[in-house]
């Protein structure tokens, strides 16, 4: 019925205008589906909850089985009428991988999440309105490579709250910073304080605002960028990414080589002792 | 690569990793990088960026600000430097955003009377505040404790100095008394002068000598002795009689030298011996003679 009404309405408007309007609305309308896999730890679950609170245009979904249901996620997104998906995949109760995908056909990115600090930590003293729109601050390193430009675009459309979102609030309270250091993307969330730090009253005219960290904070290490949503041909592979399993294996092998080399050394020593016996001492029996 | 192959590839990521593990164990490198071509389809990526970018939207609907200069951190482990750079990037972005928002005409800062639900609950913020207060108090306490320790050390030093001084004085006076006693025992009369002069010459303020007889000369022209003071010194002073000595011994009780039969039976025994008191005639006699 709605479409009939709309087509009837369009007789009074130019078709191009209608299409443009629909395009604009779809450009504006971004909704995120947040899903976690089974086996997330408490810290990872809190991170997901924090992001759900900070992004009012998100919708949380119940847990899915890890490997089988990756293709189900696209269908889930369609059911919930979301065009972005954040999938928190936990492996071995230790590593957290974050998939950011554009639901029907768009690109998807897989990240490895490290250094998670949630909003609950008492060192993060800032606070902001629930649902206020953030200012997004990007490092200019994001403009240097095409894959980074794509990431910047994706972050703007997912982490940026659209203007008319249902649960959003009017004022600009906090800023998300995305920076690239050491080939990884560092995320921080700061509260904008425009009061004087000492007195708590209004600031002087030209004084700069202060930033207080709200949290959460995490580091994203890009693994791959795919052309399709949760699959498809790889468009980009990060050469500097080393899987955490490989790191752990390397540490263990280092310990193993230490032990192996020690055993080999003792064997060597014994062999050498046998090969070069001490000459007989003529004064051996003097003190008897 | 078809979709199926890619999915297979993805699902088999684990096996790929085990292959890498084997390579790690075999090779000498600890963190091996498999030497192969890394996929980076720049043209496809750029095309996607163009496709995705929301050209139709104005700035206010995206609110993204890119910094003017790239962030360069020489050591990732240098937390302070890194966080400072993030802070500066955020601050710069906020200032620019304020300008842009002002241009559009949308309100930027939250007014003081706007109350709405916050991301962290009030209870949580109270806990944060409590923790900060506790930290401050902890710092204050430790500072006070430090100060007290310093004072105590200083006070202790002073106390020790005073004690040392007193001990030295005591030792000196004891030595003097010992030498005087020795002299008294060995050579008698001529030394009485030394007794007084020595003690008087050394002790300026602290000596226990009554003002009444100090410096006064008696009838002979010799300085007056305060017998009361001397006996007190003997009893209570340094090197004086040891305390707790029995006042009566068997000898002293059977000592009859203080008792004299002749005196006891004399007429004016009860009268108190008054020396130096002249007998004065009565008023009438004085008036008669004057």
From TrEMBL, chain A:
GO cellular component annotations of the record: nucleolus
Predominant cellular place of this UniProt entry's protein: nucleus
Keyword Nucleus: yes
InterPro entries hit by this protein: Brix, BRX1
SMART domains in the cross-refs: Brix (SM00879)
GO biological process, alphabetically ordered: ribosomal large subunit assembly; rRNA processing
Keyword annotations of the record: Nucleus, Ribosome biogenesis
Keyword Nucleus: yes
A molecular function GO annotation: rRNA binding
PROSITE patterns in the record: BRIX (PS50833)
Annotated Brix domain residues: 30-231
Location of the region described as Disordered in the Swiss-Prot/TrEMBL record: 259-288
Pfam families: Brix
Cell compartment(s), UniProt: Nucleus, Nucleolus
Function of the protein: Required for biogenesis of the 60S ribosomal subunit.
Family: Belongs to the BRX1 family.
Protein name per its UniProtKB record: Ribosome biogenesis protein brx1
From TrEMBL, chain B:
Pfam families on file: Ebp2
Comp. bias regions, Basic residues: 211-230, 274-290
Keywords: Coiled coil, Nucleus, Ribosome biogenesis
InterPro entries from the UniProt entry: Ebp2 (IPR008610)
The organism's place on the tree of life at top rank: Eukaryota
Biological process, per Gene Ontology: ribosomal large subunit biogenesis; rRNA processing
CC per GO annotation: nuclear periphery; nucleolus; preribosome, large subunit precursor
Keyword Mitochondrion annotated: no
Residue ranges with Polar residues bias: 250-271
Spans annotated as Disordered: 197-290
Subcellular location: Nucleus, Nucleolus
Similarity field: Belongs to the EBP2 family.
Entry protein name: rRNA processing protein
Species: Coemansia pectinata
Organism lineage: Eukaryota, Fungi, Fungi incertae sedis, Zoopagomycota, Kickxellomycotina
């Amino acid at each position: 019925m709605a479409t009939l009404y709309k087509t009837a309405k369009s007789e009074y408007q130019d078709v191009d205008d209608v299409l443009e309007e629909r395009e604009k609305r779809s450009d504006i309308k971004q909704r995120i589906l947040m899903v976690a896999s089974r086996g997330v730890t408490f810290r990872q679950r809190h991170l997901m909850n924090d992001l759900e609170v900070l992004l009012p245009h998100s919708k949380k979904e119940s847990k899915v089985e890890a490997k089988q249901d990756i293709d189900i996620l696209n269908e889930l997104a369609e059911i919930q009428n979301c065009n972005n998906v954040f999938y928190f995949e936990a492996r071995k109760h230790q590593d957290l991988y974050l998939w950011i995908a554009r639901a029907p056909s768009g690109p998807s990115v897989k990240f490895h999440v490290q250094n998670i600090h949630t909003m609950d930590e008492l060192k993060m003293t800032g606070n902001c309105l629930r649902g206020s729109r953030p200012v997004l601050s990007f490092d200019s390193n994001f403009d240097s490579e095409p894959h980074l430009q794509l990431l910047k675009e994706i972050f703007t459309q997912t982490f940026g709250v659209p203007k008319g979102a249902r649960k959003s609030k009017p004022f600009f309270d906090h800023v998300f910073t995305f920076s690239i250091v050491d080939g990884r993307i560092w995320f921080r969330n700061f509260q904008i304080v425009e009061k004087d730090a000492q007195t708590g009253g209004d600031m002087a005219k030209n004084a700069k605002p202060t930033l207080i960290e709200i949290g959460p904070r995490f580091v994203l290490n890009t693994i791959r960028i795919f052309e399709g949503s949760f699959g498809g041909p790889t468009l980009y592979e990060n050469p500097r990414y080393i899987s955490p399993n490989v790191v752990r294996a390397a540490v263990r092998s280092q310990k193993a080589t230490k032990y192996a080399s020690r055993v080999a050394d003792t064997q060597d020593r014994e062999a050498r002792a046998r090969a070069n016996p001490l000459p007989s001492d003529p004064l051996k029996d003097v003190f008897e | 690569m078809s979709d199926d192959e890619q999915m297979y590839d993805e699902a088999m990521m684990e096996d790929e990793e085990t292959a890498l593990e084997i390579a790690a164990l075999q090779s000498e490198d600890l963190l091996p990088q498999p030497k192969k071509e890394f996929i980076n389809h720049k043209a496809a990526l750029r095309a996607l960026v163009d496709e995705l970018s929301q050209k139709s939207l104005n700035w206010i609907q995206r609110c993204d600000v890119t910094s003017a200069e790239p962030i360069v951190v020489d050591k990732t482990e240098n937390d302070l430097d890194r966080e400072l750079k993030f802070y500066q990037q955020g601050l710069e972005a906020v200032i620019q955003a304020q300008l842009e928002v002002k241009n559009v005409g949308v309100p930027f800062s939250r007014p003081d009377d706007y109350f709405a639900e916050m991301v962290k609950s009030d209870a949580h913020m109270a806990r944060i505040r409590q923790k900060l207060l506790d930290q401050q108090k902890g710092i204050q306490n430790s500072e006070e404790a430090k100060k007290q320790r310093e004072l105590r050390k200083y006070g202790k030093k002073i106390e020790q100095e005073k004690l040392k001084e007193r001990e030295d004085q005591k030792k000196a006076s004891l030595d003097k008394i010992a030498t005087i006693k020795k002299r008294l025992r060995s050579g008698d009369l001529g030394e009485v002068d030394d007794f007084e002069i020595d003690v008087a010459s050394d002790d300026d303020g602290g000596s226990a000598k009554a003002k009444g007889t100090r410096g006064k000369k008696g009838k002979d022209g010799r300085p007056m002795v305060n017998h009361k003071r001397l006996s007190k010194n003997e009893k209570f002073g340094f090197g004086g009689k040891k305390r707790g000595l029995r006042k009566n011994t068997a000898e002293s009780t059977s000592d009859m030298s203080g008792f004299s039969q002749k005196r006891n039976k004399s007429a004016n025994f009860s009268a108190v011996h008054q020396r130096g008191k002249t007998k004065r005639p009565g008023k009438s006699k004085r008036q008669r003679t004057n």
